[in-house]
Design brief:
Radius of gyration: 26 Å
Order of helices and strands: EEEHH
Largest sheet: 3 strands, antiparallel
Number of strands: 3
């Protein structure tokens, strides 16, 4: 681990360009750090859609129940939030 003062600048870490993951320990007026994982240049994993929107889009319906305070609260918020 490399030890620096807490007021040290980021340049004093001497990191090259790219993405870095650091483990930092702060104690008193000093901090210690180490590179926790090597930077990778791999692109993010492509995620496949779940079909949630296609399955459920347009299925919501408003329910009025004056006896349900929480439901009425939600309905009032929806009315004031969306013109």
């Amino acid at each position: 681990m490399t030890i620096l003062s807490k007021s040290a600048s980021l340049e004093s870490l001497e990191l090259g360009p790219g993405t870095h993951t650091l483990k930092v320990v702060v104690a008193g007026d000093t901090m210690a750090f180490e590179l926790a994982a090597p930077a990778t240049s791999a692109s993010p994993i492509a995620r496949q859609g779940t079909g949630f929107v296609e399955n459920w889009s347009g299925t919501a319906r408003k329910i009025d129940d004056p006896g349900d305070e929480w439901l009425e609260h939600i309905n009032r918020k929806l009315i004031t939030s969306y013109p």
